[in-house]
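With this grant's support, we have paired protein sequences with backbone structure tokens. One protein thus recorded is set out beneath this paragraph:

_____
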Amino acid sequence: MDLGATVCTPRKPACIVCPLREQCKVIRTGDPEHYPFKSAKREKPLRRGAAFVAVRNDGAIFLRKRKEQGLLGGMAEVPTTGWTARIDGETGVAAAPFLANWTNIGSVRHVFTHFELDLTIYRAETLDRSSELDGWWSSPSDLPEEALPTVMKKAIETAKPGATKRKNPVRRQLA
């Protein structure tokens, strides 16, 4: 390790003073400054899904807890479709967790270690439906204390009133 830190450096290696000079394959190539060779980074796969930000009239956001296993396990989220690191989730309003006046307000892109996620964001102003749903309402003052991953914070921020809206909203009306 000392040789790598002091002699065999990526820029201007000191091959002339290296005690392993005779056995070095890199010196035999004639150009030790090209080593170590960095391989090109693999392109990350792009996954797609949808997030549904339900807002109550007092500004509270509906949240639920993610499954304990897997990506972002046990953290809070706005309802989303079944995307994972390996598969896409649905992106349409038909996948909404309940009937409401859902409006497509845009999308967010989030980069995870092994993949990128493009989430289509839907927003609906709705009544308190706690008895029908598996989750809770978080008031604007409590939201910063929730265990929300960054991708969910981006989705909520995009859904806030005054955020840039798409020109052609897609709606799923109450039945």
